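Pair request: fold both.
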Amino acid sequence: MDFSYIQQSLPLFVRAFGVTLRLSALVIIASTIIGLVAAVIQHFRTPVLSQFFAAYEELFRNTPLLIQLFFLYYGLPSIGVKLSAETCAVIGASLLGGAYMAGGFLGGFSGIPTSQLESARALGLSQLQMVRYVTLPQGLARSVPALAANAIFLVKETSIFTVIAVPELTNTARDLIGMYYRSDEYLLTLVIGYAIILIPLSIILTLLERRVRRGTFAR
């Protein structure tokens, strides 16, 4: 193990770390928004849209992110749509993540007692008011464990972006290994880079889950 190689490559890894962190944040935010919209529409069985989002979930949860990225980056240019590698990465991972986030939200919404929904209807609340005052407050709290797991999953999935040459952590480590043949040094740096992102994120999400659980279920 020659740590001088790690020292020399640190500027490249710091830059790649920033790319990974930025793309992870964008993907998690976009996935959460997509998943929430899809879950609310399916929960209330909105005609046509409900079937559309159900099909969307099945499609993206049952196809690999690798194939989705290949389609966006290599397939779309054949019909005149050319996107940057980072844009393709964010779109592909967000659509995949949105499908999983929708499942997490739906699980939380399904845990809301039917009596509360019936009471809301009896009070004359519109569907929009039910979403705002009944479904979202309770459903979001119940969805936190699944959403946290999905967020961590999406950060790890950024390693797939290397197939379309996004300069994130995995791609940087692969390029350096190819140039200098120092697998141990660069793989160690790669592991440390992901650990710096994932361990604090996991701790924060665990604390959030505990706080929400106490606030929701404590008496």
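--- second member of the pair ---
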Amino acid sequence: MNLILFVVALIASFIVVRIGAIAFQLTGLEWSLAKFQALSCFSGTGFTTREAELIVGHPKRRKIASILMVLGNAGLVMLIATFANSIRPRIAGASSWFGWLWRGFGPLVNLLVIAGTIYLTWRFFAKSPKAKVLTDYLRSKVKKSGIVEPVSVEELMVSSGGYGVVRTEIANDSPLAGRTLAESAFRQKDITILVVRRGDEPTANPPADTKIQSGDRLLCFGKLDKMREEFGGLEAETPAGG
């Protein structure tokens, strides 16, 4: 029974981490960073200071991280308890030859099953094409739940001082569509447009008279909070007492 509980808890932990990564991605975090940050929050390890700015500076991500941390602590306790009970020697049935055999080799068999389960579960989520099917299914469920609203800003990296690089696509109803870079006053907002990609044609260091069109993908550098506000990637945080 303890072995079954361990396997169930292990698989559930992987699924929770994947849901957390999806939630982070829907808030605009790049997928590889979203997976790493979800695993870091759940396990309580590997949470780097620089990349942590992407989490602590965003109200929705802080809530997601808090939930992952709580679930991670509870899951870790369950995994440790069920693991310890699974490999503990058993005395029951020791009067028969099978009982003596199981008493000696049972914990080893359980340990091999646990190791195999960990490896196969990791292989499935890290390597298997079916993991993408599961991820897409979980993403659709998270979107339908309305817990996390998807945004149009994908944050690729963060540097010191709250600056970072983001990628965004201009929607048809965006107020930026039809305006030039100069008219959009990005410079005054501490945002630098590095690349404008229209179809498969990228324009690096675009001039100020470049007109933005719907469907354009912009690669930008600047203050993350400013870019979230400009491109719709951040929900305003309610002031204390509001």
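Observation on the second member. Helices lie at 2-26, 31-43, 49-56, 59-86, 97-127, 130-145, 181-184, 224-231.
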